Amino acid sequence: MKNDFKGELDMEGEVCIEIMTLYSVFNKLLLAKRFAQSDFMQKPAALAVIDLADSCSIFEEAFNYKATGVCYNNMANFQYKNEAYSLAIQNYEHAIFLAEVCLGTKPPSEYYDWIKKNIKEQIPDAPRLTYRERERITKSHAHRTYQKVMCKYKEMRYLGGV
Q1: Considering the domain boundaries, does residue 8 fall inside one?
Q2: What is the span of the domain harbouring residue 106?
Q3: Which of 33, 62, 127, 153 is 20 to 30 Å from 162 by CA-CA measure?
Q4: How many CB atoms lie within 10 A of CB 84?
């Protein structure tokens, strides 16, 4: 195993299925450790979002709803900063739903049902809106969604770090 936690575990020769399973688990742990130690806020936005998406999938597989929600929130923050407001809204919505799962107001099964649905932009097409008006409305919606997710995570923190 490498000491810098940046690479994968090295394996050589034939191994049994149990060893392969352990190998997979440790690789995921190393990726999660990389995320925890990462200075992703200092990276270029595209690389940070890729790292966050990788971490998101790892945390989802481990049913760690809080960490998954934090990843979605951080991805949305980058997208909002880069004026990708529709994507930011979608990721903020993920974070809100996961906060509600952590708070116990929604069961995890509802989250997985919600993921399966096609998430569409919540602002309807209105031919009479100019591009700038539509962008302003989308930005405003993204900001309100951000405020809602921050309220949910503050509630989780005050309830004892759910």
Answers
A1: no
A2: 17-158
A3: 33
A4: 18
Residues shown for the chain? 162
Instruction: Check the CA dihedral 125-131-134-135 and report its sign.
Output: positive
Instruction: Write out pLDDT tens, residues 89-109.
Output: 889 988 999 999 989 888 888
CB-based contact 81:45 (threshold 8 Å): yes
31 token code pair: 């990726």
Tokens standing for residue 68: 């998954």
**Scanning the structure block, which residue is given the tokens 């069961």?**
107
For the stretch 110-152, pLDDT in tens is 887 777 665 444 445 556 778 788 788 888 888 888 888 888 8
Q: What's the CA dihedral at 12, 17, 23, 27 to 10 degrees?
A: 120
- Exposed, middle or buried by CB within 10 Å (0-12, 13-18, 19+), for 109? exposed
Pair 1, 9: CB distance under 8 Å: yes
In a domain, 3, yes or no: no
Write the CATH number for 137.
1.25.40
pLDDT of 32 > 80? The answer is: no
Alpha helices, DSSP H, located in the chain: 17-37, 45-61, 65-81, 85-103, 108-116, 131-158
